[in-house]
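Predict the holo structure. Ligand: threonylcarbamoyladenylate.
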Amino acid sequence: MITEYVSMTEEEPDGAAIARAGDILKRGGLVAFPTETVYGLGGDALNPESARKIYAAKGRPSDNPLIVHICRPEAAERIAERIPEAYHILAERFWPGPLTMILPKSRLVPPETTGGLDTVAIRFPRNRIALALIEAGGGYVAAPSANRSGRPSPTLARYCREDLDGLVDMIIDGGQVDIGVESSIIDLSGETPTILRPGFVTKEMLEDALGSVALDRTILGGSSGERPRAPGMKYRHYAPRGELSIVEGAAAEVIRYINERTAEAAGHGLRTGVICTDETRDRYRADSVKSAGTRTEERMVARELFRILREFDDEGVQLIFSEAFADDGIGMAVMNRLMKAAGHRVIDLT
Ligand code: TXA
Ligand code: MG
């Protein structure tokens, strides 16, 4: 398949290209597109054949359900069996935006889209290119992150091309995404609203809206053997090709430890990398030292993380150490993704 590339900005979506992309979706084809979180790999959510194609293009196991993207909140009524009060509260407060809600599904949604589950994940994104595409494609677009399974989610169209060239019909370049980690996911299908994946909409924000919410226990935990309730969270995700470890402890200790280990590895001929912050970057001596921004601006860290992981791959870095970040607020999303990327390898110096 030859992939068509188009480029546009949120301020000026290219109407003709969006119309072509919409036709591709309606015919059962695939289009990668920007959202405010990460790039998505879109197909018609109501067409079982499209879901099969998405799994094939990503190389993703088909028991891992897809998020259905809508472009107006009422659209949820056709694909959900029942809509609880909490849904209205959260939709009012956070949509359009980086929050996905899980509800019992209606019969309109084929089991291929939900990985056989009787619930459906619904998201109303706020990126205007995404919204125009969803509208043009019929209103229900299933879209996982537009990476090959196991690789970091793409924050730039260039990374969609790296992973999916020749595997999808079109890739829409809309520039660098705004947030950089995938949407928060909250399950509203049971008794207690439960966060299955942390994101930009934090636990604190959700509690402020709903009162108490639970947190799926596998979110920051290691290999407890427990199964996460979002099936996708069980896979080794976001993994760079090099071996990544997170080093926790007092700053001076962390720096000393990482410098010792990277010097030793360099002695064995390995290329080394470090993920740090502006405050500490000058103190490392690895081959590739990357700052994710300043420690006080957790938003920046979220935005840069996946790009940094991919850059280490491009540079052939074989051994990577990362500083740890605070795990409250948006930091919880950052640490959740970092822990997965590291396969839960944590070196605790405390
Ligand atoms: O920000 C995002 O959510 C991005 C953009 C493209 O919108 N999409 C995204 O999709 O991250 P994906 O497929 O990479 O991650 C979806 C996650 C997976 O962990 C999946 O298991 C979980 O959502 N999920 C989807 N439907 C579910 C359901 N019915 N019950 C539980 N978990 C579900
Ligand atoms: Mg993904």
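The chain has a mean pLDDT of 94. The chain has two domains: 4-215, 243-348.
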